[in-house]
Design goal:
four-stranded antiparallel β-sheet; alpha+beta; single chain
């Protein structure tokens, strides 16, 4: 039997029992729709998480700290008893230059954090100050800024968190363009190279922006601050920082050290090599690529379970295919007998029923993909309505890639063909003489 005749017969037989075949095809469509809807949700959530990390610049960032840092000493001692943290090199200007010279490194900025007194009008508040690099704007790490970003790397300008701006003015946006004064502790070089002194200073800044969300999605320590100024400006101010108190008990208290350096690469492809190079310098290094490995494993497991639950409906639909084709065998026994009497082989009969099953699977698969797409769009639309009521930005939590569309249709056809094995074998075993006698 040639292929064209095979599919013509399959199409004709599909039309003969329209209602039954339509209901069976709809069952397949519902199964495919549930599979597509669930998998597209998992893929969408994974894409959403990756997008947020990419926008924050985390994939191309490595955080470096000294092993002498109090946060690392106990952890390093537990991991390596032979490695003494007190003998590790300090994270100073020399280390900063070495790291900046590594291939692929675009900039190395310190984690500048300090407590200051903010004076605005007749209000005085103690709060946390933090330096924000100019690259934060390029990485979209600062989202939903009312106003603008810093005009230059050493500008006397600040960004305020929305809540802190509301504390200063009832209408938080009214602080834009106004001036505030920051009183801070400045570290100054001492009379000898092994000492330093602290002096109280104050400086005026212009408020140029108000942040609705924490920089870098709240995933860096400096994000917890309420007042942000350019990192270069913060460095020039010589702000007294927590790491300076540790230096008081070290052999070289006059040397400027850093609690953490943020290393930004030209692209995420350099992150792993730079992280390894920094560790070879005997510093502690961490990148969010380490965390994303766990995230990817989590989403892989999630997608697997969503796919299993989505496939259950398709498995139920396969039983309907078996039922439909078995009924077709009973109704068409005489037709099958005539085909065999005219020379059709058992293989030809099997191919006919496989073709009918594949046709139902193909039509049901296409309908299921469309239905799953509609369900996904409805879920995403409803989610964004909820986010809007919660005064949160709309997000796309649902994605249907082309490979999922193709895989869903192929899977539907494959399940349908497997479901047709028993009916096809039953039809092929019919005795043509007995079949011709069947009324």
């Amino acid at each position: 039997m040639i292929r064209q005749d095979l599919f013509e017969l399959a199409a004709r037989n599909m039309r003969n029992a329209r209602l039954r075949n339509a209901l069976t095809t709809m069952g397949i469509a519902v199964g495919v729709a549930s599979l597509v809807a669930m998998l597209s949700l998992g893929i969408g959530l994974q894409s959403f998480a990756n997008q947020k990390l990419m926008k924050s610049g985390m994939f191309q960032t490595v955080f470096v700290s000294g092993k002498q840092d109090i946060r690392n000493m106990q952890r390093n001692a537990e991991n390596d008893a032979d490695n003494k943290p007190e003998d590790a090199p300090v994270l100073n200007d020399e280390a900063r230059k070495k790291i900046a010279a590594l291939p692929g490194v675009e900039e190395v900025v310190p984690d500048v954090r300090a407590t200051g007194e903010v004076v605005y009008g007749d209000k005085t508040n103690f709060t946390l100050l933090a330096g924000l690099p100019m690259s934060a704007r390029d990485e979209d790490a600062v989202e939903n800024v009312k106003g603008r970003f810093f005009s230059s790397a050493n500008a006397d300008e600040v960004l305020l968190q929305r809540d802190f701006a509301k504390h200063l003015e009832k209408d938080s946006d009214s602080v834009l363009g106004k001036t505030l004064t920051i009183r801070y502790a400045e570290r100054q070089a001492g009379e000898s190279s092994t000492s330093f002194s602290i002096e109280r200073k104050e400086k005026q800044f212009r408020i140029v922006g108000v942040l609705d969300a924490e920089p870098f999605g709240g995933m860096r320590m400096i994000s917890r601050a309420r007042v942000f100024l350019p990192t270069q400006t913060a460095e020039e101010m010589n702000l007294m920082q927590p790491a300076d108190t540790q230096q008081l008990v070290r052999s070289t208290p006059g040397e400027r050290t850093y609690s953490m350096l943020t290393v930004r690469m030209k692209s995420a492809a350099y992150a792993e090599k730079v992280e390894e190079s920094v560790k070879q310098m005997n510093y502690s290094a961490y990148s969010y690529l380490d965390a994303t490995k766990s995230i990817r494993r989590f989403f892989a497991v999630l997608d697997m379970f969503l796919g299993i639950f989505g496939s259950l409906a398709l498995a139920v639909a396969s039983l309907a295919i078996v039922n439909t084709l078995v009924m077709a065998v009973l109704e068409r026994r005489r037709e099958i007998g005539i085909m065999k009497a005219l020379g059709a082989s058992d293989a030809d009969v099997k191919k006919l029923f496989f073709a009918e099953a594949a046709t139902m699977g193909l039509i049901g698969g296409v309908m299921g993909v469309v239905l799953g797409w509609i369900i996904g769009r409805a879920i995403n639309f409803g989610t964004n309505i909820y986010l809007s009521k919660m005064k949160m930005p709309a997000e796309n939590l649902w994605t249907v890639p082309l490979w999922l569309v193709a895989a869903a249709i192929v899977f539907a056809v494959l399940v349908s063909v497997l479901a047709g094995i028993y009916p096809a074998a039953r039809a092929a075993r019919l005795d043509p003489v007995q079949a011709l006698r069947y009324e």
